[in-house]
Design a protein that fits this description.
245 residues, Rossmann fold, six-stranded mixed β-sheet, 7 helices
């Protein structure tokens, strides 16, 4: 199990920028990355800039930095959603993401039907879903509402269903954008236990967060990003002491 990024940059093109004041501004670093021009004069935002690191088995890596620093873009590269504009990315292993746990939920389908729909999107075999179905239904605490259309659910009920199915995965590489908060205090306790179990089943964890306590307690290593570049990559206590000072 291995991840290697070598001089990775990600440029996002800005179309129809000719009619805006963007090109008239000073090209440089902004909150969301570096605004620049290609050789052909097209406007781009460089969201990641020359990022290099490796990650190995059993590492728990926290990503910190201000909004727009490049954390979500890096997670999308690791999830193979974005292909680097420049550089080399080697991602070896099955990737699981908890970034958008409601993806694929159909409001017109019942909760039970959505268990199978969401699981199929995650690549979970139907046989596994059938084996774990009773536990999933019990965990959601939806009772008879499991057979009702999801459009009748409250936000909390919807999130419990999505969370229960999404955490069935057993990935080699787990990607998270902040710690998931779902339900009331009692359900939150159960969800945290389920989440910790998922993390233990995973080989490598990447979690983006603004919580110093979470990063220091959960991670074995921290990467600090600003303007799409790595500022520090070290022990959690060292990086957090510099970033949160």
């Amino acid at each position: 199990m291995e991840i290697e990024l070598r001089n990775v940059s990600v440029d996002i093109p800005i179309f129809n920028s000719q009619g805006r004041s963007l090109k008239k501004t000073v090209i440089g670093f902004a909150t969301g990355g570096k605004i620049g021009l290609t050789e052909s004069g097209k406007t781009i935002v460089r969201c990641l800039d020359n990022v290099s690191f490796t990650a190995k088995s059993r590492e728990r890596i926290g990503l910190i930095g201000h909004n727009g620093a490049g954390k979500s873009t890096l997670l999308r590269v690791l999830g193979k959603v974005y292909t680097p504009t420049k550089g080399y990315a080697k991602i070896q292993g099955k990737v699981g993401s908890l970034i958008d746990i409601s993806l694929g939920i159909d409001g017109e389908a019942t909760g039970l039907e959505n268990v199978f729909l969401r699981a199929a999107l995650l690549g979970i075999p139907k046989k596994q879903v059938e084996q774990e179905l009773d536990d999933i239904i019990s965990f959601t605490q939806l009772g008879p509402f499991i057979n009702m259309p999801v459009r009748t659910y409250s936000t909390g009920m919807h999130m419990r269903l999505a969370f229960a199915v999404s955490t069935m995965i057993t990935p080699d590489i787990l990607l998270m954008d902040e710690w998931l908060s779902v339900g009331d205090q009692e359900f939150q306790r159960l969800a945290e236990m389920r989440l910790n179990s998922l993390i233990e089943r995973s080989n490598i964890l990447f979690i983006a967060s603004h919580s110093r306590k979470l990063i220091e307690n959960c991670c074995t290593r921290v990467i600090w990003l600003e303007n799409g570049r790595i500022v520090m990559d070290d022990d959690p206590l060292k990086v957090c002491s510099s970033y949160f000072c």
